[in-house]
Structures are given as C-alpha cells and as structure tokens.
Amino acid sequence: MTNLFTLENILVILAAYLFGSIPWALVIGKVFYKTDVREHGSGNLGGSNAGRVLGKAAGISVTILDALKSTFTVLICATWFPSATIVAGLAVCFGHCFPIFAKFKGGKAVATTMGYFLGIGLVTGQFISIFLLPIILFFGILYLCKMVSLSSILAIGTEAVVSFFIQPDLVLSFSFVALFLFVTYRHKSNIKRIFNHEEKKITWM
C-alpha cells in the first residue's frame, strides 16, 4: 500500500473500475440472446440472474467472465503496479456493482470477489486457503441450504475471518472484510427474503 496515491496508481485504479464495469450479463444477453437481462428475473447483472433468464451456459459464462475481471486485474497489478493491487481489485468489484456502462446498476460482487480471492491466492501462493476454501464452503453450504445468496455470504464471510489466521498481511485481510460487508449489503433484499422464508432455492443440487 506504500505510495498508493501516485498519479500512476490512481490511473490504474480508475482503469480497474472501468474494467469491472463491463457488464458481461448484459453483453452476452444482448449479443447472443437478443435479451436485456435487466428486464427479467431479478434484473441483476450477475451470473445467477443470467442463468435464470438465459440458461445454464450463459450463467456459467457470465460468472466466469465476471470472476476473471478481478483475477486478471490482481495478476497484472501484482506484476507491474504492486502497491495498487489490493485497491485495484476492490475497484473491480465496485465497478461490477456500479458499472458506468450500465447506468450504475450491476451485480452483487460474488463472482468478482471469488475472482479476487483467486488472483490473491495465486499471487501469494496460498491458492488452497484463499481461493479453494471459500469455493468448497460455498458449494457445501449450497448443498445444505439450496440458497445461492446465503451460501455466498457465509463462504466469503468465513474466508474474511480465516484470513487473519492464515496470512500476515492485515491490509489484505481487511480487504476481505470489506468485500464481505459489501457483498452482504448488496444482498440486503435477499437477506430480508431469507428471514421471511421467501428466498428462492435452487433445484439442480
């Protein structure tokens, strides 16, 4: 985080936000399906809604592309702009949720957060504890509760807590906490439905 506020780093962080703003659900929906996913389902520009509206292939494609936005950003920054890596990764997630290319109405940052975990895991050499652990938790919790929203929140939250014990960089751990709080906030309507026993459950697991 040393010398974060240099002109170079500010430009890198801005570029990361713009990269994160690419609304892959909207692009894939309009280009391949002639459908604006914002007008269907939850209206969310994320992989879950894309899968619900456009089908499994589209949902998986959107999820992977959204995740890779933050993964690529972390890997590129770690190589050429190391002091901006963490903030640039967060900027991608922020851009995904509030994309300038889609009237600032985007997704909920689950895929981009997982992509951030992947990038950080590869950079730090802690692939299993930083990326694989939350992925296993996500699918394990999903198997039990059948709710993508709850599984996402709990998996990311667990990783945020565990990170304080598995690696020494407090700034990095606090970035995980920030993402957990952000993802939780973005799921506030889902949380309300969970408490009201109205949240939709998956049927494929």
Mean pLDDT across all residues, rounded? 95
Q: What does the overall shape look like?
A: globular
Taking pLDDT < 50 over at least 5 consecutive residues as the criterion, the unreliable ranges are none
The percent range for helix content is over 70%
Please state the structural category: mainly alpha
Work out the strand percent: under 5%
Extended strand count: 0
Largest sheet, in brief, is: none
Q: How many structural domains does the protein architecture include?
A: 1
Distance between the termini: 42 Å
What's the total helix number? 10
Oligomer: single chain
Rounded to the nearest angstrom, the radius of gyration is: 16 Å
Query: What is the element string, with H for helices and E for strands?
Result: HHHHHHHHHH
Explain the overall architecture.
Its main location: membrane. The chain crosses the membrane at residues 12-33, 116-144, 164-185. It catalyses: an acyl phosphate + sn-glycerol 3-phosphate = a 1-acyl-sn-glycero-3-phosphate + phosphate. With 205 residues, this protein is mainly α. The longest helix is centred in the N-terminal third of the chain and has 25 residues, at 56-80. 72% of the residues lie in helices and 0% in strands. It has one domain (7-195). It has helices spanning 7-20, 24-33, 47-54, 56-80, 85-97, 110-124, 127-145, 148-166, 170-186, 188-195. It starts with 6 loop residues before the first helix and ends in a 10-residue tail after the last helix.
